[in-house]
Design goal:
With 102 residues, this protein is mainly α. It is built from four helices and no strands. α2 (21-40) crosses α3 and α2 runs parallel beside α4 (74-101).
Length: 102
C-alpha cells in the first residue's frame, strides 16, 4: 500500500509535464500563501513593512515549494487553509452585519 500524498503533484505532472514543475508550484504556493495571510493574519501596515512581510513570505514559500516537489501535501494544505479562513471571514462578516442591523 503506497502513501502518495502528492495529489496536486500528480495532477500537474499528468496535465502539464515536469518541465516547469518547481516554478508552477512556487507561484501556486505563493498565491495561496498570500491569500491565507490576507484572510487570517494581515493587519494594516505601512507600505515598507508590508513589502518586507511579502518578501519574507516569498522566501518562506521557496522552502514550502521544495516540500511540494517531493510530493508532500503542502499545496493541498494551503488550499484547505484558505478555504477555512475564507469561511471564517464570511461568518464573521455575517455576524457583524446581523449585529449592526439589530
Amino acid at each position: 500500500m503506497g502513501t502518495d500524498f502528492g495529489l496536486m503533484f500528480n495532477f500537474l505532472q499528468s496535465n502539464f509535464g515536469t518541465e516547469h514543475m518547481f516554478w508552477t508550484f512556487y507561484v501556486l504556493n505563493l498565491i495561496l500563501s498570500m491569500i491565507a495571510y490576507k484572510l487570517g493574519f494581515a493587519r494594516e501596515l505601512p507600505l515598507l513593512k508590508s513589502m518586507i512581510v511579502y518578501v519574507m513570505l516569498a522566501i518562506g514559500v521557496f522552502i514550502i515549494t521544495i516540500f511540494s516537489v517531493f510530493k508532500l501535501p503542502m499545496t493541498e494544505s494551503l488550499i484547505i487553509i484558505c478555504a477555512v479562513l475564507g469561511i471564517y471571514r464570511y461568518r464573521m462578516y455575517k455576524e457583524r452585519s446581523n449585529k449592526n442591523e439589530g
